[in-house]
Amino acid sequence: MLKLYSYFRSSASFRVRIVLNLKQLSYETVPIHLIKNGGEQHDPDYLALNPSGVVPSLEHNGKVLTQSNAICEYLNELHPEPALLPTDIVERAWVRSVCNLVAGDIHPLNNLRVLTYLTQSLEQDETQRKNWYQHWIKQGFDALEGLLSQKAGNYCWDNTITLADAFVIPQIWNANRFKCSMTDYPLLRRIYNNAMQLSAFQQAAPEVQPDTE
């Protein structure tokens, strides 16, 4: 049994849920609420599993894996079909570059820890925090749209679902939640609309998780 420690609105958890669904793997969701009770990710029992105090974490056969990139790669190797990386070494690196652009360049600037710091330590109000979020989304999406223009079809990599889609779709979902303009990103809009017609993505969405609010 796979056990996913997850928060319904976490885009990193969203990525892993997509991959689990694409691989048609059954898993148990263990909700870790990032806001209630001072943030359940800070609980000593959870920190013993994941010292970083973030989600997701994946428990499998008594072992715990952390970091969504590593977890998604692990699942892709554990269950090779359907393959979520191209066979060609250059194309495989390109897909990983899309994943890293999202997970390394965009998401860290706008995750809950950063937004909380802006509010509590720098005393920014809601408007300032929203402006911060939208500024970094624009920079990241400008780069992402340009990168995708090299390869995109119905999905990030031509007409085949890859790990890139599992990373891009949650980031767009978050951008929509924060009312970021998507006018300048026709490729991102197309990929999002196509992917969200698939059950693996629909069932991974935050609004249908057992801990959703």
Describe this structure as you would to a colleague.
With 213 residues, the chain is α+β, with helices and mostly antiparallel strands. The longest helix has 23 residues, at 126-148. The protein has a four-stranded mixed sheet, with helices on one face. The protein folds into two domains: 2-82 and 201-208, 3-Layer(aba) Sandwich (Glutaredoxin), CATH 3.40.30; 89-198, Glutathione S-transferase Yfyf (Class Pi), Chain A, domain 2 (Up-down Bundle), CATH 1.20.1050. The two termini are 26 Å apart. Helix 1 (11-22) links the parallel strand 1 (2-6) and strand 2. The protein is globular and about 45 Å long. Helix 4 runs antiparallel to helix 6. It has helices at residues 11-22, 44-49, 68-78, 89-110, 112-120, 126-148, 163-177, 186-195, 199-202, and strands at residues 2-6, 27-31, 57-60, 63-66. Helix content is 53%, strand content 8%.
